[in-house]
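Thread: Newbie trying to understand structure tokens

Hi all, I'm a second-year student working on a class project, and my supervisor (Dr. K.) asked me to get a predicted structure for one chain before our next meeting. I've only ever worked with sequences, so writing a 3D structure as a token string is new to me. If someone could post the tokens and maybe explain what I'm looking at, I'd be very grateful. Here's the chain:
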Amino acid sequence: MASISDNTQLISVFGFPTYNNFNEPTPFTNRPATLIGFTVSFLAVSWIFVVFRLYVRFRVVRLPGWDDLFVILYLLFTSVASISFLLAIKFGSGRHFLLLTFGEVRNYLVLFYILNVSLNFAATFIKLSQLFQFLRLFEKGTWAYRASVYGIIVISAWGIAYTLLSIFPCANIPDAWNVLARDARCWAYASQNPDEFTATLVSHNTLNTLFDMYIIAIPFQLYSKSGLSLRTRLGLLVLLGMGAVVVTLSGWRVYETIYFKAGWYPTRDPTWYGPRSLLLIILEVNVASICVSVPIFWPVISPYLGAIFITHEFSVNYEERASSSRSGHGRSGSDAWVNDNYYKDSFIMDLVDPLGSSTNRYLKSREKEKLEKSLRDLKDLKDESAV
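---
Reply by user tm_fold:
Sure, no problem. This is what the structure looks like when written as tokens:
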């Protein structure tokens, strides 16, 4: 056998495949323009939405929480994953595996290793962010609160298990990107057994889809409650629509993984059959980040949109609201005043409680207080008239 260098093509060493797929038309999702366009666009949108969310939590309401920490971690790892995916295009993603050189394959597999670890982290963190957000929304003791706690426990275990499998795919980790490794002890994401490799991806992807469905179902117990405003019901439907997109992308990825046996069917060609599945999970976590971010910052930007696209009255109302917000935010009164008037304000609570449940409860109590005050004033007026 001739000496093997980084410029040696795999086909010259491993031979021609039993099933010739070299003449297959190039899939739309294998084209560099497609991969770059979708990845960059969705990553940019995710960054914009998450930054808006963090601005509101840290600068407007000044009430950050664990859900914000997890969304920051998500943003870090999804960025690493997206960059790795884009760099992998240069080293063979979208092209036939056997037509690559050994140098290209090594670089591709290193990037796949980084991509896989980052995606496992990102998928876990974005789900935890949503569930911790629910803990701020629902009251302790309710079904939704308990369901969120159970989800946090199970999803954390799922994330830890599969992330460890992605970090340690071989007894000697570099064997994961050495296609010439002899007697390599690898498993799960680096297994050379097609059934084991496929089972790892399918199990992870299937559980991922089920968890997405579980998370979407939790807040929709609110929809059947009486007394919900039209605004809240429409907000729930919008969240359901965005959640349905996440589940659709996740389910599509399960189908792709099963059909192509994670790049092993009809022949082993992971760089040819794999890009679509990887693109789908990148898009999925990005859309999920939009779902968890929109309810947080929408109450802040909606008055501006109203002022621009509807009438000037919205602008006037907002300025009045902003003025009272600044007075509380500036801490001009006592701490008790701030707690009673600023952090319990309906606008502020809308940011912490995006579906409006606690806000509605608070507004009802305020209406009751106003009614009682009006009755007292009326009684005082009658007493004065009698005198």
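A couple of things are worth pointing out once you decode it. Residues 295 and 354 are 5 Å apart (CA to CA). The radius of gyration is 27 Å. Feel free to ask follow-ups in this thread.
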